[in-house]
Amino acid sequence: xxxxxxxxxxxxxxxxxxxxxxxxxxxxxxxxxxxxxxxxxxxxxxxxxxxxxxxxxxxxxxxxxxxxxxxxxxxxxxxxxxxxxxxxxxxxxxxxxxxxxxxxxxxxxxxxxxxxxxxxxxxxxxxxxxxxxxxxxxxxxxxxxxxxxxxxxxxxxxxxxxxxxxxxxxxxxxxxxxxxxxxxxxxxxxxxxxxxxxxxxxxxxxxxxxxxxxxxxxxxxxxxxxxxxxxxxxxxxxxxxxxxxxxxxxxxxxxxxxxxxxxxxxxxxxxxxxxxxxxxxxxxxxxxxxxxx
Length: 293
Known about the structure:
mainly alpha
């Protein structure tokens, strides 16, 4: 349970605590507690804000490799699949190869038979959640958010799971929390909080979060910052950001050099993740698509 950084009093409903808007690290019962704690918190708050600013435009961590072919996993969800049996994400090319050899009913990594029922699938996910598997926790939050896979839609539960997943290192969870604040799903709409969580997601390498930050900066009139975000997103495989840079170039809001840099960055990304096996998979089915044009 969260507690006030000043008086230590907790709240049954953590949503009633007010978060420091600058660093988002501490919470308070009310404005009086926040003011009283300010002399102690001021230095830490400024350091945290400076640290976030420094990290924001650094190159994010490289995507993990497929544990079978050892090539970088694609950023598109269709280019990979998470397996709850072993907690491994497998690329579309290796999944396709298994299907073509008749082994599609076995996990390509641990060789566990595929679940036969929805109940068995849920049981495997729950087992991974108990092991603090951040991706499993994130995926379970997505199921509650969408109300799919037999789950009743519950935005509060989804947010709870995404926060837990984010604390365990799942950067995409930060992106989804930001979207919740943007849309008011389970929380009050708050653009500042949406931006904050997208920044955390972008630092973790989530291209969708990075693209959203570019859009935020355009609305604020900060074109240079927007282009920086879009370029980093393109380097991570975000075709949407590439298209946005093209549109900005056609409107005279980005230079030819900006667009050329983006095109080269996206081609470098494709070269990094491409393989004959993945090409065959993508040609076979849209389900195995691993990059966009």
